[in-house]
Structures are given as structure tokens and as C-alpha cells.
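re the bet — no i am not wrong, look at it urself. input seq straight from the record:
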Amino acid sequence: MASILTIEESKALLALCRTGRLYEIEDWIRAGKSLQIAEGVRGTPFQIAVEKGFRSLIELLVRHESQVRIKNKALAWAVEHRRMDLVELLVKNGAETREFHGIIQNRYHNRCRASRAVHGKLKSATHMRMWRNWQTR
């Protein structure tokens, strides 16, 4: 299952994910088709499943995904969407939390840089409040 899908296959898989077609995706996996999306196609099955909140689809995908890097990205999306149930599911199924802290830290600091560019220098109290809020999300 390590091969990369064609653009057409990638779009078809993502369409199944968007509409929550769990049984069709299960058949896709059973047929031995890959879950690796082609370059140039926006989105991933995990990203769509997290955004739509399809827990059963995430359970299916996480069982059949061998790349920890992809599970870690799904973990970051789950945290961004404040889906602690999905975070727990992903961690139990192999997502690594040691990389997770760095991902969140980078996203937080990128937001701070963007905010500074728009609003000027942030005051330290505001900066600390934003950091605390980001950590508790």
C-alpha cells in the first residue's frame, strides 16, 4: 500500500472521505489500493475526516496507515479543531506526541509573527495570555 495514487484516484478517494462513505473506503482498502494522495491534490483523507468529525473514518484510516508522519499531522489537525477524542484515538494508534509539541509551538509562533506584522509589537502580557490559551486548546 506504499504506492502513490494517480490524481484521478486521489480525487475519488477524497470525495468518498468528504461524503463519509465508510463502507466504500473500507472496500478501497480491502482491494489493496493506496491511501497516499498524489502531489498537487489538496487535502488528505485524515485532514478531511478530522475537519468533518468522522470518528469512524479516522478509526479506519489510522488502523491502515503505516506512516507515523501522517498520523502526527492528523494529530495536529485534531488539536487545532479541539477534538480531544480524536487526539486520544490517534495517540493510542501510534501518533507521536514528542513531535506534536514542536508542531503546535511552530504554529503558535507563526500566528504571533503574523499578528505582529498586522498590529505591531505585542505586549508581553498579551503574548503570554495567547500562549496559555493556545496550550489549553
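see?? Residues 63 and 93 are 7 Å apart (CA to CA). told u. also Confidence is low (pLDDT under 50) at residues 114-123. so pay up
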